[in-house]
Amino acid sequence: MQHRGRFAGIDIGSRSIELVLLNGGGPVYQVKVATTFDPLGQCGKILREVDAERIVATGYGRKLFAELFARRNVATITEIQAYALGASRLFPEARTVLDIGGQDTKVISLLGTGKVSRFEMNDRCAAGTGKFLEFMAAALRSDRRIQISSMCTVFAESEATSLMARGERAENIAMGLHLAIVQRTLSMLRRVGVHHPVVFAGGVAHNPCVRNLLEEQLGRELIVPENPDMLGALGAALHGRNVAAGVPLEVRNRAQ
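Below the sequence we write its predicted structure tokens.
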């Protein structure tokens, strides 16, 4: 069965690929698959199930996607633009977007119109990302908070191994790693400017430990979408709709 819609947004990330299909109103179909070792092959499988007039790609694989699927009327959009559009569409009151994905962290400050004011993106190291946290789900069972000093993935793993050899509980080491990542994220947030409400998106938004620690440090609750992984794909699809509707360039980052 093929799913039909006018505009599709596809977000090609390091750990997963998401697609959102829009018609005149809201999403009519969405899907998420693992990126695996063959992301473009995975994209091809998704597209066999979708019939869209226009596809907008975002994420680290967007340029390769646009080259391979050029016959499908493909455009691209940056992740910053896509997440700003998606967050503003779901939460018009949002002023900050935090996305922690598989390989990078993004902080986006929004104006009242939903337009991007400032942003910062960390994509130089896997530390502070979902990939780094995948095996650390035991943190919620910790009984004390220890400090992990290194923020390099390799050295942090070495430090964690050393702590285990000294008899430290695995749950406490996991909490230490979560704390280190949250502190790094808070530094990014403060450089860009923390303006509430804050939308927490990306795969790590599913991690209750990271969410609890961020809320504890910020002193406010975060807004977590029902499907936090889908925000970029939704924003990409909205961009396609905006272009087709002739929305002027200077206001395309608004929620329409």
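The beta strands are 3-12, 16-22, 27-34, 50-59, 74-76, 96-100, 105-110, 116-122, 198-201.
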